[in-house]
From TrEMBL, chain B:
It comes from Roseivirga thermotolerans. This is HEAT repeat domain-containing protein. It holds the Pfam family HEAT_2.
Length: 258, 252
């Protein structure tokens, strides 16, 4: 019995260390997460999920291993020090936790689990790199600003301020927070939004060079005058509510019901 | 470090409109320093411009107003010594009545302006307080709820200029641009818009500024639009938008 126990322990221990090594994880304790903000900068591909608990869990997937010659050496980066061992630099100051990608790893993807209640800001300014930004399950304020990135939002509530230049924005709202305006802007690509049918909002859709499509019941203001010819569509959903602005300057806007 | 904390507290007080004149002066002196800490840099313009304006502004005070009324009524007093004929008496009475009505209008006008001014002041204080929030959505809401858009006071304009130039979030900056466009031609707004146009990096915001300049029908903006079209790092579509803007403005 004793022997078996020891063996099980040994197997478990090896398994734990092995997975630990493979998963490439970094944990950061955050006391009192609501009211704090997580800022993610220049992470080329990133998925953010909400979880219970007071830790920010960062894991790196399919990153390139360091070459043998690099053994015992620290990776250098023009962007700053990798102080997590997984290619990220993490600093905490006041109510803000800032994470930026120190290693180049243009294809590497990071998964970041965030305590519920923590606000998230994601910024990517890199030229020609920068892939998907995915956020799911967050019911706090969200700010995302990218250039080449496509943004996928799932099961969020906002308020969300999202802008990207070349990528598309797909947002599936669990409900639309009435705390503040939500605004989604893509310059060249598609903005595709799904809302619950009972969403209250003052809607503004702008597609100067594109089209807008919807199956939601949008109430348009009744005016005696002839409607101004304009690419901006104004209306309300379920009698009006928080401001919801959707803009695709050179692309199309799709607004769907859930 | 300690001194910075003090200044930060002052800034907070300033934005909630609770600073005394003395404290505002202290802030202005501080922000004239060359070696500002980076985190305070964004406030510099707002505070210095507000100070600049205060110097320029000449407020109509009560003494001036009464002096004007007296002047007016003195001018209207006919120089007649004897009041023998009845048409003279009647003339004087009519003149007095008219003068009284005029004064009534004047005072009424002044009172209604006063309530409007205080409403604008209140709105401004609220706006400044909300703008110091670290929630971008909150700041966006604050800018989109500005009501006194037809007759903004100078401080409101300065605040919007600062938001348009310094707010870290693009959506908030665009809202400030749209608010300025709605206010029509205002002192300094074309200059501020063209200045922001050449500093702005986000194409969506650049396009919003171009649209605002066209809406303001301001020919003097053509030069800045031309400059934008010469910048290689500006996206082709934005430059096209600037060409369209130049075309529309020249056509006016």
């Amino acid at each position: 019995m004793n022997k078996l126990n020891r063996m099980v322990m040994a197997v478990l221990f090896t398994a734990a260390t092995l997975t630990g090594l493979n998963a490439q994880e970094f944990k950061l304790d955050v006391s009192n997460p609501s009211g704090k903000t997580l800022i993610l900068k220049e992470l080329n591909r990133v998925a953010v999920e909400a979880h219970d608990g007071n830790q920010v869990l960062m894991t790196s997937e399919n990153h390139g291993d360091h070459p043998e010659r690099a053994q015992g050496l620290k990776p250098l980066s023009a962007r700053g020090e990798d102080n997590t061992g997984i290619g990220l630099n993490v600093t905490t100051s006041g109510n803000e936790v800032t994470v930026f990608q120190a290693a180049r790893r243009s294809q590497g993807k990071y998964v970041i689990k965030v305590p519920k209640g923590m606000k998230v800001q994601i910024e990517h300014t890199g030229q020609h790199e920068g892939g998907k930004i995915e956020v799911s399950g967050l019911s706090t304020e969200l700010e995302i600003s990218g250039r080449y990135n496509s943004v996928y939002l799932k099961n969020i509530t906002g308020p969300a301020l999202v802008n990207t230049i070349y990528g598309k924005i797909e947002a599936d709202f669990a409900s639309l927070s009435q705390k503040g305006p939500t605004s989604l802007v893509s310059v060249y690509s598609t903005v595709d939004v799904t809302l619950p049918t009972n969403t209250k909002a003052n809607l503004l859709v702008k597609t100067p060079y594109g089209e807008a499509y919807s199956d939601l019941n949008i109430e348009f203001p009744k005016t005696e005058e002839m409607r101004k010819i304009s690419s901006a569509i104004e209306g309300t959903l379920n009698g009006g509510g928080v401001e919801l602005e959707l803009k695709a300057s050179y692309g199309n806007v799709y607004l769907r019901k859930k | 470090m300690n001194a910075n904390k003090e200044i930060e507290q002052l800034i907070e007080k300033y934005f909630s409109g609770e600073t005394s004149l003395e404290e505002e002066k202290q802030l202005q002196v501080f922000f004239q320093r060359e070696d500002l800490p980076a985190e305070l840099e964004s406030y510099r313009q707002q505070i210095l411009m507000a100070a600049e304006l205060r110097k320029v502004r000449t407020e109509l005070n009560d003494d001036d107003l009464f002096a004007k009324i007296e002047e007016a009524s003195e001018a209207k007093e006919p120089k007649v010594v004897e009041l023998k004929t009845s048409w003279q008496t009647w003339g004087l009475r009519v003149a007095a009545a008219i003068a009284l009505v005029l004064v009534g209008f004047w005072v009424g006008e002044r009172f209604s302006q006063n309530t409007e001014v205080s409403e604008i002041k209140e709105e401004l204080a609220l706006l400044k307080q909300q703008l110091s929030s670290n929630s971008a959505s909150g700041r966006l809401q604050a800018v989109s709820q500005i009501k006194h858009a037809e007759r903004p006071d100078e401080e409101m304009l300065i605040t919007l200029f600062a938001v348009m130039k310094n707010d870290p979030n693009m959506h908030v900056r665009i809202k400030a641009v749209e608010a300025l466009a709605k206010m029509g031609k205002q002192p300094g707004s074309v200059q501020a818009l063209t200045g922001a146009l050449l500093e702005e990096n986000e194409p969506a915001a650049q396009i919003a500024i171009i649209e605002a300049l066209v809406a303001l029908q301001e020919k003097s903006a053509i030069e800045s639009l031309e400059k934008l079209t010469e910048q290689d790092q500006v996206l082709k579509e934005v430059r096209d938008e600037a060409y369209i803007g130049i075309f529309k403005l020249k056509d006016m």
